[in-house]
Design goal:
Helix 10 runs parallel beside helix 25, helix 25 runs antiparallel to helix 29 and helix 28 packs antiparallel against helix 29. An eight-stranded mixed β-sheet has the order 8-23-22-21-9-18-20-19, sandwiched between helices. Strands 10, 11, 12, 13, 14, 15, 16 and 17 form an eight-stranded mixed β-sheet that branches. The chain is about 50% helix and about 15% strand. The N terminus is likely disordered. Strand 21, helix 22 and strand 22 form a beta-alpha-beta unit. With about 850 residues, it is of the alpha/beta class.
Length: about 850
């Protein structure tokens, strides 16, 4: 077994064969048994480590709230000094509350982990001489990997062989230009960015192909060593920023009030330890400590529902942006069109069907050894090959997004012939001759050039994607990019990808959800305009890639929002368009599946790919569609909005109850000679009101809410908190009046009465704030109302039980239940009317 050397050898200085010997591997790769042993030795090829979701760490994480830790310490101090029973009760409640959070969060993390397994990134590996697709996490040092365009580099590797292998190392080095990689050895002092014989984790293949030997995995890679400062972190979503601000704001207000309440109680000569415990318990009770758990549970529940709609969520936080999305940018292939490219015609320069054109196109498509795109597949499937022997391939220049051509060198009848296929304009750039018929080759005059361009435009206007085919004889058996010149233009190959029958309906459905579809395509504007008309996008506004180059950022921001189609765009312009739309204030989704889509996927608020996409696109995406259909996306958007709605419901519930309790507790502390609630009673109140709220992810969402995008608005939440917090406090004071002035209750009766009213009203107010409609017109989910009903029954029975006695509760006069019913009913009815006024006057756009 080779031992891992933490002071890694200078791989770039060694020849490939030397590295193979050093890592005890060979050109046929490792044996399965050896790979398994190395997997145990090195662990997973990941920057996250093994214990990222350890249940023990997750459980301990429930106690990271500093107020909770102080409360536990104070309860232990109380246990040592005086009241052991109360201290034990407080500790048990804290433990149960933390256990509830752990149970919810652990179940959520497991569910998400299972979903992510459906879209794992794989790599081709040689094991015992056979090619296998395995997860990148299972790569080990000594593995021989096979790479082609679109592949993620799974680990640091040294090149064994390559052919026009260009790699994008922008994520690693920051350099935007692809780097050519080839086998060899380099001097010891070669900088990382100049090590052209090595591949690094965090980069991906732009074009070409190669074979490489894995030398470092996981945290031992160059990327891993500096991952904390270099790793591409997903930008914080607007919702995450809003929740953070909201939590911080509520915590500040709570702590200020707690300090004041503690000082008041001490000044009123109440026991200091009791006052301290009371203040801490109040801090726990008033802080929405379950908010992170509720958000995680809601998002994971949303992810599971979206998975049922064939949308796999890779990054949970993106669900909130998904619900807020109001612009979706997408290529047309497979979304608006059927995604099944079919060959229409192969014609010569006069527009006549040509057997030579289709044969040369087939040779180019079938014998090239890189990534076979849908156009290649269409040619291969259409051409009926009757040749007894296939020509030998001598050399190849793979396709790239700069040249937009693919060339192969073949030996045909003893002659070396280069055949090039590619975008019409880029093929014309390398041609100086045309083939008139089988024997006639003429110079490419301006007249012929104009005729060919007219043919190309006619094909495009009819909606056909058109490629050019050219060729040349060669004295050499090698061929490079520099040899793509003085070629003979042979003819056209045209393709069609008809629009889906459901395209018009789908686009209308997106509009109905407040999402504007914008097409971004590399095809020419004529094809895009023709397709737009076919799917009902009349008078579509088109911006060409050439126009983007001369536009300022400000001009693009203004024009991008009104454009329907961006045609003839270069790969880097996709990101430019996305950023312009974001700066204009839109929440932008981008749907891409190609090698050149990674930057745009990263830049979008929601990056969307498909399970058949190249690795680099799937890796960059937030969501992966298991079916390349916009209808699937529409269902996902609806689920995303439901998830957003249910998360916001918890925020509204927390603010309406917690903020009101702050005012109530502050006032009660001033007028009462005793603590309005004991610390253990506050914690029990917090626990009982939290239990139903953990079911909020199952709740129904009003259809009216789903039909438009919503965004996190901290000012809206502040207004909601103030209005409904004060309303809650008013009815708390009504309860105080009944208990003190009407029923003349003692300390224990007051605490019991307020406990009952507080928990029951908090449980029932859920039914009001969960919907903008009248609460009796929008029914909650079964788990939500059952959980609330159970809590209410438990609270009513509790004072009559021995457990209730442990908490200091006593039986109350029968009249109190009548008064409480009237107070709670008044609160619910008033809150329902205030809610209607609030959404009409203070939040009409929400």
């Amino acid at each position: 077994m080779v031992q891992y050397n933490n002071s890694a050898p200078q791989y770039w200085t060694k020849a490939p064969q030397e590295m193979i010997s050093l890592l005890k591997s060979d050109m046929n790769g490792l044996s399965e048994n050896e790979a398994e042993q190395r997997q145990k030795q090195y662990g997973p090829n990941s920057l996250k480590g093994k214990s990222a979701s350890s249940p023990y760490l997750l459980f301990l994480g429930q106690f990271k709230n500093p107020i909770t830790l102080i409360l536990i310490a104070a309860a232990i101090l109380s246990f040592i000094l005086q009241d052991k029973t109360d201290a034990i009760i407080i500790l048990i409640i804290v433990l149960i509350s933390s256990g509830l959070g752990f149970w919810q969060e652990y179940g959520a993390s497991n569910a998400v982990a299972k979903l992510l397994q459906l879209v794992q990134i794989t790599v081709q590996v040689l094991r015992e001489g056979s090619l296998k697709n395995i997860s990148t996490e299972n790569i080990v040092p000594g593995d021989v990997i096979i790479l082609s365009a679109g592949d993620i580099i799974p680990a640091d590797s040294i090149i064994l062989s390559s052919q026009d292998l260009f790699v994008d190392e922008a994520a690693f080095t920051g350099e935007s230009y692809p780097v050519e990689k080839q086998a060899g050895s380099l001097p010891e002092n070669t900088a990382v960015a100049k090590r052209t014989n090595m591949l690094f984790m965090g980069s991906h293949v732009i074009s070409g192909k190669g074979k490489a030997l894995v030398v470092s995995v996981g945290m031992h890679t160059e990327f891993g060593k500096i991952s904390d400062r270099l790793r591409l972190r997903a930008p914080e979503t607007e919702f995450e920023r809003g929740i953070k601000k909201f939590g911080f704001m509520l915590m500040q207000i709570t702590l200020i009030l707690i300090i004041l309440i503690f000082a008041m109680n001490v000044l009123l000569h109440k026991p200091i330890l009791d006052a301290f415990l009371f203040s801490l318990a109040l801090a726990v009770g008033l802080t929405p400590q379950l908010l992170p758990v509720i958000i995680t549970v809601n998002l994971s529940a949303g992810a599971k529902k979206m998975a049922a709609q064939q949308v796999i969520v890779k990054r949970l936080a993106a669900i909130e942006n998904f619900g807020s999305m109001n612009i979706l940018c997408s290529d047309k292939t497979g979304t608006i069109t059927q995604g099944q490219v079919k060959l229409y015609k192969a014609t010569d320069i006069d527009g006549k069907d040509s057997a030579q054109v289709i044969r040369y196109a087939w040779l180019n498509a079938s014998l090239q050894q890189g990534f076979k795109n849908p156009i290649d597949q269409a040619v291969i499937q259409t051409y009926q090959n009757t040749e007894k022997s296939i020509p030998q391939i001598l050399d190849e220049v793979p396709y790239d997004f700069i040249r937009k051509r693919l060339s192969i060198m073949l030996s045909i009848d003893g002659k070396a012939i280069a055949i090039t296929k590619g975008a019409f304009k880029q093929v014309m750039e390398v041609c100086t001759f045309i083939q008139k018929d089988e024997k006639t080759i003429l110079p490419l005059s301006d007249v012929y050039r104009t005729e060919l361009e007219n043919q190309y435009e006619n094909f495009s206007r009819e909606g056909y994607r058109t490629l050019g085919i050219c060729w040349k004889n060669s004295e050499s058996h090698t061929f490079s990019k520099n040899d793509e010149k003085d070629m003979v233009f042979l003819g056209f190959v045209t393709f069609f990808d008809p629009p889906k029958e459901s395209a018009i309906k789908t686009i209308n459905n997106l509009n109905g959800l407040g999402v504007k579809l914008k097409i971004i395509t590399g095809d020419n504007a004529l094809i895009a305009e023709t397709l737009a008309k076919q799917v009902g996008m009349q008078d579509a506004v088109v911006i060409r890639g050439s126009e983007l180059q001369s536009m300022s950022n400000e001009a693009l921001m203004a024009k991008a929002a009104h454009a329907d189609i961006f045609a003839e765009v270069e790969p880097n312009q996709k990101e430019q368009i996305i950023l312009a739309l974001k700066k204009a204030g839109h929440v932008v989704g981008f749907m891409g599946d190609g090698i050149n889509d990674a930057a745009a996927l990263h830049s979008a608020d929601v990056g969307i790919s498909v399970d058949t996409a190249v690795d680099v696109a799937k890796e960059a995406a937030d969501l992966v569609l298991m079916n390349q259909d916009l209808e699937v996306l529409i269902n996902g958007i609806k689920e995303g909005r439901k998830t957003f709605a249910n998360t916001m419901k918890y925020v509204f519930m927390a603010t309406s109850a917690n903020f009101g309790n702050m005012f109530s507790m502050a006032g009660a502390s001033l007028i009462l000679p005793f603590l309005p609630l004991l610390p253990k009673q506050i914690l029990l109140t917090n626990l009982l009101t939290d239990i139903p709220e953990t079911t909020i992810a199952t709740d129904n969402v009003d259809k009216a809410y789903i039909i438009k995008p919503h965004r996190m608005d901290i000012n809206f939440i502040k207004r909601f908190m103030l209005v409904f917090g004060l309303l809650s406090s008013i009815f708390d004071y009504c309860t105080f009046g009944v208990l003190l002035l009407v029923l003349k209750t003692n300390e224990q009766q007051f605490q019991t009465g307020w406990f009952l009213e507080s928990v029951i009203s908090a449980s029932l107010i859920v039914l009001v704030v969960r919907t903008q409609n009248r609460f009796f017109k929008s029914l909650p989910s079964t788990p939500l109302w059952v959980a609330n009903l159970v809590v209410i029954i438990v609270v009513v029975i509790l004072p009559f039980t021995s457990i209730g006695k442990l908490f200091g509760f006593v039986e109350l006069p029968v009249q109190f239940y009548g008064y409480m019913t009237l107070i709670v009913a008044g609160y619910i009815i008033t809150a329902d009317y205030i809610k209607r006024w609030f959404y009409k006057k203070l939040a009409p756009a929400y």
